[in-house]
Each structure stands twice: as structure tokens, then as C-alpha cells.
Amino acid sequence: xxxxTLKSSVLRIGAVLAGMALLAVTPVSLSQAxxxxxxxxxxxxxxxxxxxKATDRAMQKxxxxxxxxxxxxxxxxxxxxxxxxxxxYAVVVSxxxxxxPTLTGVFEVQxxxxxxxxxxxxxxxxxxxxxxxxxxxxxxHGAYWHNRFGTxxxxxxxxxxxxxxxxxxxxxxxxxxxxxxx
Length: 182
Hints:
Blueprint: H1 3-23, E1 30-32, E2 38-40, H2 50-63, E3 68-73, E4 78-83, E5 86-92, E6 105-108, E7 111-120, E8 123-135, E9 138-142, E10 158-160, H3 162-171, E11 177-181
Parallel strand pairs: 3-11, 9-10
Antiparallel strand pairs: 1-2, 3-4, 4-5, 6-11, 7-8, 8-9
């Protein structure tokens, strides 16, 4: 990796993380005090589901290691490749539509295929590049048939631009943890 590529990768990761930080701001409710002046109210904590708690715990544990792992954020449509607590690669992805959602949870890469035919009741796509299955038929893979990254358009898989899918495919091994969260 030359200096320019490294610098642009670091800038890209920084920009994605900065964007994610902006999206993570917690709203604060305002109320009025007895004198009519606005005052900041308590932040209402939403109860977390068991899956959210499991993904949070898994991420905390993985960040305490040097292990390679993949985070997929469905809300922000982002994938971050981590080595322990260090983000090493970040990309915009397309995950499942509302009718065909990407499942949340903690998984691991189970099988890798340089190319794979993907079929369903309403699609048949040959030669899907850099496919990494992490839960049954759910996979992270390259998508050459669309350029709508950042928008949920898939049947549940995590679609990545082909050049990014290639990088991830080379970087991740079978057994690499995959944390999919809202």
C-alpha cells in the first residue's frame, strides 16, 4: 500500500466514523421550568432488546482483543472492518429491504466463494463476486448490478461495491466474527 492509498483510506475511515458519530447524537427533550425558561429534560432511555444487548456485548469484547471482526450497522448502512479496537476499513453498503430484512445478531463467516450464483423466488444472479456467507443464506458480497449503496435494496444480504468486497474477502477468514446491529 503506497502512502497516497494509506492516506486516502485513513481519511475515508475518519469521514465515515465522523458521519456515524453525528448520526449517533442522542436527542434531548426540552421542558419549561416554573419560570417559563426552557430546561433540558431527562434523556429517555429506550429499552434494549436481547439482540441489541448481545451485539453490544460482543462488540465490547471484540474491541478488547486484537481479533479481526466485521461490524454492519443497518441504520447507517455502513460496514466497518476492525482489528480489535481499531477500524481498518469502512464502506457504505446496501442491506435488506423492509420486506426482506438483514437479520441482526452475532455471527461468523462460515463459507467463502470467489463467485457464487445467488437465487431466490424473484431473482437469479450469476457470478456474484467475493461472497462470504455468515448465517445460512445471508452473505456479504460484491454487487455489480446496482450502485445504490447507502440504501436498503437487497433480499437480506449485505451488498458491497465489488472493489470493497474484494478487499474484505482477502482480509477476512472463515471464522471472522460478523456483528449485525441496528
